[in-house]
Specification:
12 helices, globular
Length: 264
């Protein structure tokens, strides 16, 4: 009898431990700080592959946002953006064919979007600058090396990362700026082979890289770009930083050669 009692007790403890993180802390949501806390928990659940629980918390959060949209002062376009981004993330978590990285990217979209809606100062998307520039740096390098395979891989990475950051950008940037960034990314995707072989198309790639660099590394931006690098589940920030510094030096050397003819 005692063994049965202990078994029941252990099962109860296990079932309680397996409950979603939000259950003990949240019954309703009242403000942005609680939503931000929940989206952080959602990302942590995704990181340890507890996808069903992450989906439950996403649904709970989405429903509560809808109920208190007046308190949060959401515009109709922001409400639609939240509904779409949350729904897309839930779908990804429920798809067994999606990789862990892709699921985390979808959860990152949610995390960045909510943060952008909550804060007016140094949003988290600003911390992803090195990750957004890395594909451009790689593409410019592979153009010089004529490595088409690596170039296309970098172009795919650009599309993937831009999709992750774009919802947050839509909150903080004007429609004109979003349209310009969209055009850059679409141009790179549609003209991959031309960029590899044609100098004029390569100038478009350089212009796109320059606009993204200006967005994430404005001169008056003192944010630390390494604080949020984990969201993309890729290589270490050190290699990305060195890559970026090397790229800047490479561009500087090319500009110096143009200023001083014949210099090598």
């Amino acid at each position: 009898m005692k063994r049965v009692g202990w078994t029941v007790l252990i099962l109860c403890i296990v079932s309680i431990a397996a409950m979603p993180v939000y259950a003990s802390n949240h019954t309703t949501i009242k403000d942005w700080s609680e939503i931000n806390e929940l989206t952080s928990e959602i990302w942590e659940l995704g990181k340890i592959e507890r996808y069903n629980e992450a989906a439950d918390v996403l649904e709970f959060t989405s429903e509560n946002i809808t109920h208190i949209e007046d308190v949060l002062s959401l515009r109709p376009d922001q409400k639609r953006l939240i509904e779409y981004t949350f729904s897309d993330a839930i779908t990804s978590l429920q798809n067994p064919e999606w990789s862990k990285e892709k699921k985390l990217n979808k959860l990152t979209e949610v995390r960045l979007l909510v943060d952008a809606l909550q804060t007016n100062y140094e949003p988290l998307w600003k911390k992803t600058g090195l990750m957004m520039l890395e594909p451009f740096i790689t593409m410019e390098k592979e153009v010089d090396d004529q490595n088409s395979t690596a170039f296309h891989q970098a172009a795919n990475l650009l599309l993937e990362r831009y999709e992750t950051v774009r919802p947050a950008l839509m909150v903080d940037l004007s429609p004109e700026k979003i349209e310009k960034l969209d055009a850059h990314v679409s141009y790179v995707d549609a003209n991959r082979n031309n960029i590899l072989t044609d100098a004029e198309h390569q100038k478009h790639l350089e212009a796109a890289a320059a606009d993204f660099e200006a967005l994430f590394f404005a001169k008056n931006d003192n944010s630390e770009p390494s604080l949020f690098w984990l969201i993309f589940s890729i290589g270490g920030i050190i290699s990305s930083t060195l890559f970026y510094v090397g790229w800047r030096k490479y561009k500087g050397d090319k500009e110096e050669e143009l200023r001083v003819p014949g210099k090598r």
